[in-house]
């Protein structure tokens, strides 16, 4: 089991970092990706705040291994939820691939990069939120980053309780679809190891948000 120091060091890779792409598979319980390519849109600045921080928001991730439903915390992370909803509305996440799976020490599936390299983003960055006392139990949805104030489009889903330093903005939780994450995690990392491209070919066919 990784100690806290090792786990923290491993989190450098939760920031955008180059990834190779070994051969992936359509695992049992999963489907081939829907036809289409990421639109790769870019913006010069963070979108203006248009959500209501007092409202309830949800997100639906239609993945190749099942649908994952999220409850978003606009009150605690309004800029993050606003950006996520903006990007989803622009179709930015559609047809993107979840490029990173970790299976030791920290247990996350990382998504949101249209290049599937760990280097991609929407062209803007924004500050951290909701870090005081942040913890990352199974079901947490949080932003990946390259250091303070570098949030973009990449996010991660925690599929098993993980001990992370409070450096990654939590902005929601999984309310349905943990079985899909379990399927992906059980497939392991392509080529072996505990950190890299998932063996499962995981694509976000469509991502949408709604105010409730």
From TrEMBL:
GO MF entries: peptidyl-prolyl cis-trans isomerase activity
Tell me which positions the record assigns to the signal sequence. 1-20
- Span of domain PPIase cyclophilin-type: 66-209
Q: Which reaction does it catalyse?
A: [protein]-peptidylproline (omega=180) = [protein]-peptidylproline (omega=0)
Top-rank taxon, per record: Bacteria
Annotated region (Disordered), positions in chain: 25-44
Output the InterPro entries linked to this UniProt entry: Cyclophilin-like_dom_sf, Cyclophilin-type_PPIase_dom, Cyclophilin_A-like
State the EC number(s): 5.2.1.8
Keyword Signal appears in the UniProt entry: yes
Which controlled-vocabulary keywords does the entry list? Isomerase, Rotamase, Signal
One Pfam entry for this protein is: Pro_isomerase
Family indicated by similarity: Belongs to the cyclophilin-type PPIase family.
**What is the annotated role of this protein in its UniProt record?**
PPIases accelerate the folding of proteins. It catalyzes the cis-trans isomerization of proline imidic peptide bonds in oligopeptides.
Descriptive protein name: Peptidyl-prolyl cis-trans isomerase
Lineage of this protein's species?
A: Bacteria, Bacillati, Actinomycetota, Actinomycetes, Mycobacteriales
């Amino acid at each position: 089991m990784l100690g806290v120091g090792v786990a923290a060091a491993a989190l450098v890779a939760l920031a955008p970092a180059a990834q190779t792409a070994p051969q992936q598979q359509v695992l049992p319980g999963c489907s081939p990706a829907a036809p289409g390519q990421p639109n790769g849109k870019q913006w010069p600045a963070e979108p203006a705040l248009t959500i209501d921080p007092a409202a309830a928001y949800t997100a639906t991730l239609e993945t190749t291994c099942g649908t994952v439903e999220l409850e978003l915390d606009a009150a605690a992370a309004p800029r993050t939820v606003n950006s996520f909803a903006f990007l989803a509305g622009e179709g930015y996440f559609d047809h993107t691939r979840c490029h990173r799976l970790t299976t030791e020490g920290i247990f996350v599936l990382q998504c949101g990069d249209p290049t599937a390299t760990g280097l991609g983003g929407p062209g803007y960055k924004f500050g951290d939120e909701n870090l005081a006392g942040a913890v990352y139990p199974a079901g947490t949805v949080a932003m990946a980053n390259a250091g303070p104030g570098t949030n973009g489009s990449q996010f991660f889903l925690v599929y098993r309780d993980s001990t992370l330093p409070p450096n990654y903005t939590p902005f929601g939780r999984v309310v349905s679809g943990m079985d899909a994450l379990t399927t992906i995690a059980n497939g392991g990392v392509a080529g072996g190891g505990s950190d890299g491209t998932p063996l499962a070919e995981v694509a976000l066919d469509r991502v949408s948000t709604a105010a409730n």
